[in-house]
């Protein structure tokens, strides 16, 4: 049973770190709604199974977010495959005739598109470094890679983003 102080401290911690963790979850999900679901699931997993583990709570929670996002992606992929088998690709054909997205907040869309073009390994390191402010050591622990590999992926991601966004800055 948690104490009132523990609950208060935990609530303050979530309020302080929640928005950055949501940005992190957003990098592994297809929509904001999915990111919110993943974040909620990760908090529950962390609270039930990991909160008493040694280590940085933020790094443990980021690992939980990543796992929850991967689980969601697998479920969605399986569901999509089942639906495509059932409808013979109808959904894909209908998508060709949908309107293009509106022009609202074009810059944000351009940045999100550029981020999606990055290899997943680079995108997740970038998200952990920028939005979670994790060290390369913490990123390595979270992703099961060396700190040097994390640093390299970060540099490659920044270089790729610069190349993609440069024409937009000067155009």
TrEMBL record:
Q: Which InterPro entries match?
A: RNA_pol_sigma-70-like, RNA_pol_sigma-70_dom, RNA_pol_sigma70_r2, RNA_pol_sigma70_r4_t2, RNA_pol_sigma_r2, RNA_pol_sigma_r3/r4-like, WH-like_DNA-bd_sf
Any matching Pfam family: Sigma70_r4_2
Q: Which domain of life is it from?
A: Bacteria
Does the keyword DNA-binding feature in the UniProt annotation?
yes
Q: Which SUPFAM superfamilies match?
A: Sigma2 domain of RNA polymerase sigma factors, Sigma3 and sigma4 domains of RNA polymerase sigma factors
Which terms are listed as keywords in the entry?
DNA-binding, Sigma factor, Transcription, Transcription regulation
| Residues annotated as domain RNA polymerase sigma factor 70 region 4 type | 108-161
Spell out the molecular function terms from Gene Ontology. Answer: DNA binding; sigma factor activity
The UniProt record lists the RNA polymerase sigma-70 region domain at 14-79
Family per UniProt? Belongs to the sigma-70 factor family. ECF subfamily.
NCBIfam families, per database record: sigma70-ECF
Q: What is the protein name stated in its UniProt record?
A: Sigma-70 family RNA polymerase sigma factor
Organism this protein belongs to:
Oleiharenicola lentus
């Amino acid at each position: 049973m948690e104490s009132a102080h523990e609950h208060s401290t935990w609530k303050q911690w979530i309020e302080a770190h929640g928005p950055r963790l949501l940005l992190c979850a957003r990098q592994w999900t297809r929509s904001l709604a999915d990111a919110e679901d993943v974040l909620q699931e990760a908090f529950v997993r962390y609270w039930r199974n990991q909160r008493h583990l040694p280590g940085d709570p933020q790094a443990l929670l980021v690992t939980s977010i990543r796992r929850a996002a991967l689980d969601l992606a697998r479920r969605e992929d399986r569901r999509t495959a089942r639906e495509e088998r059932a409808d013979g690709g109808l959904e894909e054909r209908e998508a060709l005739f949908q309107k293009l997205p509106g022009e609202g907040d074009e810059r944000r869309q351009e940045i999100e598109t550029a981020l999606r073009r990055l290899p997943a390994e680079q995108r997740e390191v970038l998200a952990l470094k920028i939005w979670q402010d994790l060290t390369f050591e913490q990123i390595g622990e979270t992703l099961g890679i060396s700190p040097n590999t994390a640093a390299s992926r970060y540099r490659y991601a920044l270089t790729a983003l610069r190349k993609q966004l440069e024409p937009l800055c000067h155009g």
